[in-house]
Specification:
The structure is a single chain. Helices cover 38% and strands 13% of the residues. The protein is α/β, with parallel strands linked by helices. It has two domains: 160 residues, Nitrogenase molybdenum iron protein domain (Rossmann fold, 3-Layer(aba) Sandwich), CATH 3.40.50; 177 residues, Nitrogenase molybdenum iron protein domain (Rossmann fold), CATH 3.40.50. The strands form five sheets. A four-stranded parallel beta sheet has the order 11-9-13-14. It has a three-stranded parallel beta sheet with strand order 3-7-8, with helices on both faces. Strands 4-5-6 form a three-stranded mixed beta sheet.
Length: 378
């Protein structure tokens, strides 16, 4: 006859075994909460995804998981002479993936359900654009994970959370951590290089031609232009009282620009898409009101890479910051070749050096001193 003590031991062992088995099963189930607070549960390994909305596919490339995308929106199908999306330049093969909808989140549920292979998850940024994420989930039967794209300046935590959510879901959590560490380390380096410079030794500057849903002219700027922000530049358009609104494109009147007369002027080269009617370069050369600017007369006008191209290209922001730092504080950036630094950044983030391709897209003016009088403008 089996003793009560032995029976209890056998029962306890069985319970422990069942508990361990249950725990192992639980570890195979992935549970996440997206930016809208929806909790999602995935029982299978995620190997097929769609990325909807501005910048979403960029994050997938950052995580070295572009092969998981089973379709793309029509932004990835476009072909123009201007291109400033490093992830697309590094992976043009993405344009060959099947179409699932229009850009800015205007997804087509019928196209999505017809994809073969079918996606297991749809990641979606800027959820108020285009197709409603919950409605899209109902129509397709595919989980939609909403991500907050974030921002390198005031929205870094949101960006990091989105990278981690995507990373966890596709089994690239360590890569997500590496990308976050890369951003933090790079920003820390920029800030360290420019720390301790007295305010009266910081030259004033202005950036014109900032893109916002298309090209704009000289008056289009950004009060909290990230490359200026990271090197503590004295931005004449800054407005600290504006809070997060500083991160948005704004108009800075020519009268204010002329009155402030910055030491250096940087031109976001997306402006040349607009042709002579819009281009900040054309305006600088041809409009009399700009002829008196000290930077214009002194040859201190420079081209920077567009970064707001299907939302923010974080790598281009950092690359521009090193170039701006080199111009404003050459003694602090003596070891930096901005073009080489740009390709270091792009190689880590998107897998290939693409600076020369982008420079060529914008008349070879990126990271150069621009002689307005000699510039050929069409």
């Amino acid at each position: 006859m089996v003793s009560r003590k032995l029976c209890f031991s056998m029962l306890l062992g069985l319970i422990l075994t069942m508990s361990v088995a249950s725990l192992a099963f639980a570890e195979d189930v992935l549970q996440v909460k997206d930016a809208l607070g929806q909790e999602l549960r995935m029982d299978d390994k995620v190997e097929r995804v769609l990325c909807s909305g501005p910048g979403c596919l960029r994050y997938l490339v950052y995580l070295q998981a572009q092969d998981l995308a089973v379709g793309v929106d029509d932004m990835e199908k476009s072909r123009t002479m201007f291109e400033s999306r490093p992830y697309f330049l590094a992976h043009p093969e993405l344009s060959e993936r099947p179409l699932f909808g229009e850009f800015r989140g205007h997804d087509n549920p019928e196209l999505i359900v017809s994809l073969n292979p079918a996606p297991q998850v749809i990641f979606k940024t800027y959820s108020t654009m285009g197709h409603d994420p919950r409605e899209l989930q109902e129509k397709t039967g595919i989980p939609v994970v909403v991500l907050n794209y974030g921002h390198l300046v005031l929205g870094r935590k949101a960006m990091e959370e989105s990278l981690m959510i995507m990373g966890r879901m596709i089994g690239r959590e360590q890569r997500a951590k590496d990308v976050i560490a890369f951003f933090n380390d790079t920003i820390a380096d920029l800030q360290k290089r420019t720390s301790g410079i007295p305010e009266d030794q910081r030259p004033s500057c202005y950036v014109g031609g900032i893109a916002y849903k298309g090209p704009h002219g000289m008056s289009s700027t950004e009060p909290a232009y990230p490359p200026f922000y990271f090197v503590k530049a004295k931005n004449i358009a800054a407005n600290p009282e504006a809070g997060e609104k500083q991160l948005q494109q704004a108009t800075f009147s020519r009268e204010n620009l002329i009155a402030a007369d910055p030491d250096h002027i940087f031109i976001d080269l997306s402006t040349i898409q607009g042709g002579t009617e819009v281009s900040a370069l054309y305006q600088l050369r041809n409009e009399p009101c700009y002829q008196a600017l000290s930077a214009q007369k002194g040859g201190r006008v420079y081209g920077v890479l567009p970064y707001n191209w299907y939302t923010q290209n974080h790598g281009s922001i950092l690359a521009d910051a090193y170039f701006v730092g080199k111009i404003l504080y050459p003694h602090r950036f003596g070891d930096i070749d901005p073009a080489k630094k740009a390709d270091e950044i792009y190689t880590f983030l998107v897998g290939k050096p693409v600076f020369e391709k982008m420079k060529k897209s914008f008349a070879d003016l990126a990271f150069t001193q621009i002689d307005i009088s000699e510039l050929e403008l069409k």
